[in-house]
Amino acid sequence: MVTLTYPHIALSPEGVPYLSGTQTKVEEVVLDHLAHHWDADEIQRQHPDLTLAQIYSALAYYYDHQEELDREIENGLREVAQTRAGLGTSAIRLKLRAKGLLP
After folding, report:
1. What is the pLDDT of residues 59-93, one digit of tens each?
2. Which one of 4, 13, 61, 77 counts the least CB within 10 Å of its CB?
3. 68 vs 56: CA distance, rounded Å
């Protein structure tokens, strides 16, 4: 079995891939790439603290572990949806609706 290493990628004790020397998760870079269709240059413009090498390494890690990371992203989105559903409508939203400012 071949073990791949990724420059600029470290795993947290929980196994979460991060960009070495930062608190940025690989998933965060990937979400920018997928959600906004940003290439590495645009991701760096938006996150000037990251190097292009770190960004390319994060994207390479993603494409080598795409099924696993896509599953993690889906789980995270599901958790957010459940949390939002459990919160109900905010007081400010109710007031705005009452004033006819929201549908």
Report:
1. 999 999 999 999 999 999 999 999 988 888 888 98
2. 13
3. 18
Cβ atoms of residues 10 and 17 within 8 Å: yes
9-98 belongs to CATH 1.10.10: yes
Structure tokens belonging to residue 46: 């938006």
Q: Cα–Cα distances in Å, from 54 out to 49, 73, 81, 85?
A: 10, 20, 30, 36
3-state per-residue secondary structure call for 25-38:
EHHHHHHHHHHHCC
Contact in structure between 21 and 49 (CB atoms under 8 Å):
no
Report pTM: 0.81
